[in-house]
Design goal:
Blueprint: E1 20-23, E2 26-34, E3 40-50, E4 53-62, E5 71-75, E6 81-86, E7 89-93, E8 96-100, E9 113-121, E10 132-134, E11 137-139, H1 170-176, E12 181-186, E13 200-204, E14 210-213, H2 224-231, E15 236-241, E16 252-253, E17 271-272, E18 277-280, E19 283-286, E20 288-290, E21 296-298, E22 311-317, E23 329-333, E24 346-351, E25 365-369, E26 374-375, E27 394-401, E28 404-411, E29 417-423, E30 439-442, E31 454-463, H3 468-481
Antiparallel strand pairs: 1-2, 2-3, 3-4, 4-9, 5-8, 5-10, 6-9, 7-8, 10-11, 12-31, 13-14, 13-15, 15-17, 16-21, 18-19, 20-31, 21-30, 22-27, 22-31, 23-24, 23-30, 24-25, 25-26, 27-28, 28-29
Helix pairs in contact: 1-3
Length: 484
C-alpha cells in the first residue's frame, strides 16, 4: 500500500443438526443427542468418505456441571473401526469405542465444548452411532430429525481415495479442498500434520549465532524452550520465518523499496523474538511482534498467484495490537518493493487506517490491500458490512479470483467465521483484472511502507480460491489448537 509523505513517519468441520449429504455414493450424516438435565450434547459428523474408509468430527457440549476430564463412549453398528484419532486418545473393544481427553482439552465448563476427529474403516454401510455417553451418562433424546432432510448433489470434486493424515492441520485441510498451500508461515506451530522441519530461526545478540526452532513433535507446537535456552541472558531476533509448504517461500528481512527501512542499508528491522509470548494447546510459543519499522518479505517466490490467478490466504493476528499506520499486511505484493499501480497487490490488512477505506465503527478492520487502496468491500471508501473486530486472537481471511473476492473473519479461540464481503472487484478502475506480482510481505505495505504495528502468529497462502466449507474446517482446526 502506498503512503503519502505525511505517512512516512507514522509510527471442525461439523455439519448442522440433522443434515445429510450425499458424498461419493454414501450418506454422510450428523446426529445430535440432547441430554437431560444431567448432561451432554454430542454432534457426530462424517466429513469425508473413500473406498473402505471415512473421516469424522465429534463435538461434545457439556450441559451439566464442569468436568476436568472426560470420557466419551459409543458403539458402532456396522463393524466400523477407528484407525487414527487426533485431539484425544482412543481404545476400541469390538463395537465399543472409548475416547478420552488429552492434556490440553480435559476441562469442559458448563455450556462449553470440545472436539476431536478421527479416521476409520467402513465396509458397506456407515450409519451414525445411535447413542453416546459422557463419563457414563447417556446423552439422550432427539437422535432423529423431525423431518426428513433433503439430500444435496454430490460435490464437483471426487472424494479422496486415501485417508488424510492422522493429524490434520490447516494445510492438510486446504489440500483436501483442492486448494493447496503454496506458502505456510508460523512461529507457533506446524501447519501440516506431518511437518517436522524448522518453523523459524532466531539470532542472538551476544555472538550473532543462529538457531532454528522446530515443533516439539511432527505437526505440533513450537519448541519455545529451545528458544528460551538459546536466548537466555541476551536478546534474540527472528531472522527467518520458514515456509512449511516445501516451495521455499520463506520470509526474511525486508529490503528497501519505495521507502527505506531504519536498519543498515535501508532494510527493515527484525522482530524481537520474545515480545509476543502465547500458549498453543497449553504449550508456550512466540508470535512475531511487528513494531513500526519492522518487516519481512520474499520477492522471489514459487507458486504464488500472479495476474488474475485465484488465491486465498488467512492469518492469525492479535486483534488488540494495531494502529493507523501503513500498512500491517500479510499476502501478495510487488516483486520490486515498489508501488506498481492498482491491482498489483492482494494482501490481508489489519488496523484502523481510514485514509483509503474503512468499515463500520472506529475499527480496527480486516480489509484487503490491493495497492493504492485498502478495501472493505466494493466501494472505494466506506462499506457498512465490514465491522470493527478486535478479538485477542483473530482469524483474518482474504481471497480472490477473476472479478470476485471476499473478506471473512472470526475469533481464533472459538466459534465460526463470518463473511464481511463477497462480491465483485472494487468499483474503481484498475482492479479487474488484477495484476498480482507474487511476492510475499509481512508487517509492511507493498512499497515497503513500514509505519504499522501488529502481531502475527500463523498464516498461509493457497493456490486456487478456497471454498467457505474448507475455510470453516480450517477455522475449526484453529479454535481447537488452543491459542491462549
Amino acid at each position: 500500500m502506498k503512503r503519502g509523505k505525511a505517512w512516512r513517519r507514522l509510527p471442525g468441520l461439523v455439519a448442522a443438526l440433522a443434515t445429510l449429504v450425499l458424498v461419493g455414493g454414501g450418506l454422510v450424516g450428523t446426529r445430535l443427542a440432547t441430554a437431560a438435565a444431567a448432561g451432554c450434547q454430542v454432534s457426530y459428523a462424517v466429513s469425508s468418505q473413500w473406498p473402505g474408509g471415512f473421516g469424522a468430527n465429534v463435538t461434545i457440549t457439556n450441559l451439566g456441571d464442569p468436568v476436568s476430564n472426560w470420557r466419551l463412549t459409543w458403539d458402532f453398528g456396522a463393524g466400523q473401526t477407528v484407525t487414527q484419532l487426533w485431539n484425544g486418545s482412543y481404545t476400541q473393544s469390538g463395537a465399543q469405542v472409548t475416547v478420552t481427553n488429552v492434556s490440553y482439552n480435559g476441562s469442559i465448563p458448563t455450556g462449553g465444548t470440545t472436539s476431536f476427529g478421527f479416521n476409520g474403516t467402513a465396509n458397506g454401510s456407515n450409519p451414525v452411532p445411535a447413542s453416546f455417553a459422557l463419563n457414563g451418562t447417556t446423552c439422550t433424546g432427539g437422535m432423529t430429525p423431525t423431518t426428513p432432510p433433503t439430500p444435496t448433489p454430490p460435490p464437483t470434486t471426487a472424494p479422496p481415495t486415501t485417508p488424510p493424515p492422522a493429524t490434520q492441520q490447516p494445510c492438510d485441510i486446504y489440500a483436501a479442498g483442492s486448494t493447496p498451500c503454496v506458502a505456510a508461515h508460523s512461529t507457533t506451530r506446524a501447519l501440516y500434520g506431518a511437518y517436522n522441519g524448522p518453523l523459524y530461526q532466531v539470532r542472538r545478540g551476544s555472538d550473532n549465532t543462529t538457531r532454528d526452532i522446530g515443533p516439539l513433535a511432527p505437526g505440533g507446537v513450537a519448541n519455545a524452550a529451545a528458544q528460551d535456552s538459546f536466548c537466555a541472558g541476551t536478546t534474540c531476533l527472528i531472522t527467518i520465518i520458514y515456509d512449511q509448504s516445501g516451495r521455499g517461500n520463506k520470509l526474511t528481512q525486508a529490503p528497501p523499496g519505495g521507502f527505506s527501512g531504519p536498519a543498515p542499508g535501508g532494510y527493515d528491522n527484525l522482530a524481537d523474538a520474545t515480545l509476543a509470548p502465547t500458549t498453543v494447546g497449553g504449550h508456550k510459543a512466540y508470535g512475531v511482534y511487528v513494531a513500526p519499522g519492522t518487516g519481512y518479505r520474499n520477492n522471489s517466490t514459487n507458486g504464488i498467484a500472479k495476474g488474475d490467478q485465484p488465491e486465498g490466504m488467512y492469518a492469525i493476528l492479535d486483534g488488540t495490537h494495531y494502529n493507523g499506520g501503513c500498512c500491517f499486511d500479510y499476502g501478495n505484493a510487488e516483486t520490486n518493493s515498489r508501488d506498481n499501480g492498482n491491482g498489483t497487490m492482494e494482501a490481508i490488512y489489519f488496523g484502523n487506517n481510514k485514509v483509503w477505506g474503512y468499515g463500520a465503527g472506529n475499527g480496527p478492520w480486516i480489509m484487503a490491500d490491493l495497492e493504492n487502496g485498502l478495501f472493505s468491500g466494493v466501494n472505494q471508501k466506506y462499506n457498512a458490512n465490514d465491522p470493527s473486530i478486535s478479538h485477542r486472537y483473530l482469524t483474518a481471511i482474504v481471497k480472490g479470483e477473476p472479478n470476485h473476492w471476499a473478506i471473512r473473519g472470526g475469533n481464533a479461540q472459538s466459534g465460526g467465521l463470518s463473511t464481511f464481503y463477497n462480491g465483485v472487484r472494487p468499483n474503481v478502475p484498475g482492479y479487474n483484472p488484477m495484476k498480482k506480482e507474487g511476492a510475499i510481505i509481512l508487517g509492511i505495505g507493498g512499497d515497503n511502507s513500514h509505519g504499522a504495528r501488529g502481531t502475527f502468529y500463523e498464516g498461509v497462502m493457497t493456490s486456487g480460491y478456497p471454498s467457505d466449507a474448507t475455510e470453516n474446517a480450517v477455522q475449526a482446526n484453529i479454535t481447537a489448537a488452543g491459542y491462549r
